[in-house]
Amino acid sequence: MRTIRQSQKLRGVRYDVRGPILVEAQRLEAEGHRILKLNIGNTAPFGFDAPEAIQTAVTQSLPEAQGYSDSRGIYEARTAVAQYYQSRGLRDTMVDDVFIGNGVSELISMVLQAFVDDGNEILVPAPDYPLWTGAVTLTGGTPVHYVCDESNGWMPDLEDIESKITENTHALVIINPNNPTGAVYSKEMVEALVDIARRHDLVVLADEIYEKILYDDAVHHHAATAAGSDVLCLTFSGLSKAYRVCGYRAGWVMISGPKETATEFLEGLTLLANMRMCANVPAQHAIQTALGGYQSIDELIVPGGRFHEQTMLADKLLNEIPGVSSVRPRGALYCFPRLDPEVYRIDDDQQFVIDLLRSKKILVTHGTGFNWTAPDHFRLVTLPDVEVLEEAIGRIGEFLATRR
């Protein structure tokens, strides 16, 4: 019998956040080991429950959520998203500019399928959320990684971006606040990134899922605001993180700028929305309640709030380990520490993470899994409470002491 192989389209596609390391963790769990999973920003396992009002909105909608909705999303949800952006100065946002999806992940894939032809180049940050690189590759495009500068607070290197633009470059991905680094871009940086897109006639793809998770004096600036009326901008966001409903899969993409130049692309996006019928209907009923109600995330991100205290503690403890340095996150739910190559000679960071897992039963993600170029970083989720973080990072420190 012939061997059934995976599609050639998957060659080069990686998603190491849930890759071979997770398989090893599952094997250890099957043997009876308790694994502390600090590899995925999933809020529920760490005691972060969805606001009660959102849960109520979903449960009460169940009787009327049994059938398909409009493929773009229920009207109330799209209206709430449009009004959300209108309230932030994007006054031209209309209901028809919004598509609801099963999380941002689905919408990224749909948008790229509608937009990318074989050989098109898409500028993606390094490090990045690896779905972007994988989805570009899967659609036949070529991800071209521009450097974010660790010595400059993980800000994008504008000169590096400019140097990598070719006649095949079609879009610029901006992840702000950034996953995995926790960087939050200034207004000037967002404007500079959009200006590059403007001068080179690129579409801006703005991943802003962490826009509400900001620490201390950090302020989020929408790329769509800088893009104005002359740069096509697709803004991705949703409820997963700020409202602690990762499993609801309630996300959206909002299209702004010169939409009249993108009629054919938008027809293609609508076609793909129709082909998947619609997003999860019960979860769509959470969107209006979430965006229009009390913003409970504010209690978590201020000093004394769990998100703030845990992230700041993790950063502090990591920096106390000899040979480890961490740029203080200004947003999101992660630290992306560096292992000094002069102290830790690591050639294969995936193997390093597997060794840590086997030795200390701590699951993190290696830095090259986020398309970082060198095997000298890893990402750690900051969702556990302070006692668990202290124990976890203490174990990481113990393991690193054996590798110095």
From TrEMBL:
<dbReference type="InterPro" id="IPR015422">
    <property type="entry name" value="PyrdxlP-dep_Trfase_small"/>
</dbReference>
<dbReference type="InterPro" id="IPR051926">
    <property type="entry name" value="Ala_Aminotransferase"/>
</dbReference>
<dbReference type="InterPro" id="IPR015421">
    <property type="entry name" value="PyrdxlP-dep_Trfase_major"/>
</dbReference>
<dbReference type="GO" id="GO:0009042">
    <property type="term" value="F:valine-pyruvate transaminase activity"/>
</dbReference>
<protein>
    <recommendedName>
        <fullName>alanine transaminase</fullName>
        <ecNumber>2.6.1.2</ecNumber>
    </recommendedName>
</protein>
<keyword id="KW-0663">Pyridoxal phosphate</keyword>
<dbReference type="InterPro" id="IPR015424">
    <property type="entry name" value="PyrdxlP-dep_Trfase"/>
</dbReference>
<dbReference type="GO" id="GO:0004021">
    <property type="term" value="F:L-alanine:2-oxoglutarate aminotransferase activity"/>
</dbReference>
<keyword id="KW-0808">Transferase</keyword>
<comment type="similarity">
    <text>Belongs to the class-I pyridoxal-phosphate-dependent aminotransferase family.</text>
</comment>
<dbReference type="Pfam" id="PF00155">
    <property type="entry name" value="Aminotran_1_2"/>
</dbReference>
<feature type="domain" description="Aminotransferase class I/classII large">
    <location>
        <begin position="36"/>
        <end position="396"/>
    </location>
</feature>
<keyword id="KW-0032">Aminotransferase</keyword>
<dbReference type="InterPro" id="IPR004839">
    <property type="entry name" value="Aminotransferase_I/II_large"/>
</dbReference>
